[in-house]
Write a structure and sequence with these properties.
Distance between the termini: 47 Å
Number of helices: 14
CATH architecture of the largest domain: 3-Layer(aba) Sandwich
Number of strands: 15
Mean pLDDT: 90
CATH class of the largest domain: Alpha Beta
Low-confidence stretches: 165-181
Shape: elongated
Number of domains: 3
Largest sheet: 4 strands, parallel
Helix content: 40-55%
RNA sequence: GGCGCGGUAGCCAAGUGGUAAGGCCGGGCUCUGCAAAAGCCCCAUGCGUCGGUUCAAUUCCGACCCGCGCCUCCA
């Protein structure tokens, strides 16, 4: 069985397989614009992509994962100037922050992470090819635009009808689209190269059309061509990138190379809502990972919450959702512990699978794996996992080992790492002393004193959890 | 207006032409001096509304209601 995934362009469920003539499965994902900390909506998309990559690896595909860094655009230039930094210093700082957040969330680093600034020559070369082939024109100010009407199947990804281009001059509100003042021949044409303007400061590069900087869409076309070739297996991004970004990428690459079939499969993830609303700065519901950590959530819990809904449905992110994830993860750990005991393994022996180790057993988690392979159905897969863990039949040692082999692979695919809870902070001496007194009182059957001491501990913010042979202290 | 998505228990969320996974919360029980933890059990005759097809629909078709996304640089 292969991994089947919904393809945005064909709107069908299609298998993802290694092409016989390729050594690697090429996967390109649109990465972040580094002008500030990414928010959890961004991370939903990157986490879903990470689950896809991991799932493909477990399925035995050799994936080459490319995810770009957008480090030159209006926002990064403005941000750098506002911060009084060079563009390079400014974007590097936010790139570093992005990397730290990704690592915290358990995202595997892409195999290649190209930056737009580092690929200016490739972008210029692609624009030149488009001009030479008659797909682009140079405006009076030296900007270069893609001529959409020269791309006869423009709109094929989103199934938009561009035969009536005159309507494209207005937006949904009926207002003229004059957001930019460049001189385009048609309202639907888009910038490939933006001529140097005073507000760009020092951020310009030479080109055959004069100094300037690349447009947004061209970077992904140039970088995917550079690192994956004119055609590759899968292209991913947030649903909002479908149009115009991905539509433009297709047009640019296919017109520049003359080769059809830019990306064989389009993978788009739905948006994250917060408390039922679209995230926005004005609503104040744009959470960053740091803000969630500050609220006491672990990154594993956040990751669980981000993948707990199917990737093609919008997911409503709430604090309750992360709290639910906490309880669910604890249950997952308890169930795994029981299997480890049955198998005679320690937690330290419960390791992620070696990649390419596809022939090993799945045990009772076979079905959970099949569910995951069906359009990356993470919630369905988790449901199956819990169903197996709730099975009251005690497995034999051999069966438990098979189960653990399967479970380890599923947890790897989901990117969930168990048993990572930091040891609770040591209790202060005062608390330790009170606990010792209470334990002594309890042993002496002086329950009145024991209860009083428990209350004192509670007042100090500590709970005392009795065991048969001792006790644990836990902050409340 | 165009294109698209969705409405499943208190909350979250899968799924199927044959009678509703799972998680959270809640309730009960067992265990425990108390507390907690843990284990076990219970928790939608119902899947937006109304029609249609069918032996059978939540699942297919149609209409309608409601919510949401994109329609030029937002993951």
């Amino acid at each position: 069985m292969a991994v089947f995934l919904h393809d945005t362009m064909s709107r069908e469920l299609r298998p993802l397989l290694m092409k016989p003539d390729r050594a690697l499965f090429g996967m390109y994902c649109c990465g972040p614009t580094v002008y500030g900390p990414a928010h959890i909506g961004n991370f939903r998309t990157f986490t879903v992509q990470d689950v896809l990559r991991r799932t493909l690896e477990v399925a035995g595909l050799r994936v080459k994962h490319v995810r770009n860094i957008t480090d030159v655009d209006d926002k990064t230039i403005r941000g750098a100037q506002a911060a009084g930094q060079t563009l390079t210093a400014f974007t590097q700082q936010w790139t570093d922050k992005f990397h730290r957040d990704c690592q915290a969330l358990g995202l595997l680093a892409p195999h290649v992470e190209p930056s737009a600034v580092a690929h200016i020559p490739q972008q210029v070369a692609m624009i030149k090819a488009l001009v030479d082939r008659g797909h682009a024109y140079v405006a009076k100010d030296g900007s270069v635009y893609f001529k959409v009407c020269t791309c006869k199947d423009y709109g094929k990804l989103t199934h938009l009808d561009f035969s009536k281009l005159e309507t494209q001059g207005t937006n949904s509100a009926g207002e003229a689209n004059d957001a930019d003042e460049y001189e385009r021949e048609s309202a639907s044409d888009f910038a490939l190269w933006k001529s140097r303007k005073p507000e760009d400061g020092a951020n310009f590069w030479p080109s055959p059309w004069g100094e300037g900087r690349p447009g947004w869409h061209i970077e992904c076309s140039a970088m995917s061509l550079e690192h994956l070739g004119a055609t590759f297996d899968l292209h991913g991004g947030g649903i909002d990138l479908c149009f115009p970004h991905h539509e433009n990428e297709i047009a640019q690459t296919e017109c520049a190379t003359g080769i059809q079939g830019f990306a064989a499969h389009w993978f788009h993830s739905a948006h994250l809502l917060v408390d039922g609303d679209k995230m926005s700065k004005s609503k104040g519901n744009l959470y960053t990972l740091d803000q969630l950590i500050a609220k006491g959530f672990t990154t594993t819990e956040v990751r669980y919450a981000l993948i707990a809904g199917h990737y093609r449905s919008s997911l409503n992110f709430t604090f309750k959702g992360v709290e639910d994830a906490h309880s669910a993860l604890a249950k997952l750990e308890r169930g795994t512990d029981r299997l480890l005991v049955a198998a005679g393994f320690t937690r330290a022996e419960f390791l992620p699978p070696a990649t390419q180790e596809t022939q090993t057993a799945w045990g009772r988690f076979q079905h959970a794996w099949e569910v995951l392979q069906n359009d990356l159905n993470v919630p369905g897969c988790l449901g199956q996992v819990f169903t197996v863990l709730a099975d009251k039949d005690e497995p034999t040692s051999a069966q438990a080992r098979q189960d653990l082999s399967g479970l380890a692979k599923i947890l790897y695919a989901l990117g969930l790492t168990l048993f990572t809870a930091a040891p609770v902070a040591a209790a202060p001496a005062e608390v330790v002393a009170l606990a010792a007194q209470r334990w002594a009182a309890k042993q002496a059957k002086d329950f009145a004193a024991a209860d009083r001491l428990r209350q004192e501990l509670t007042a100090l913010g500590w709970a005392m959890l009795d065991r048969k042979d001792g006790y644990d202290l836990k902050p409340v």
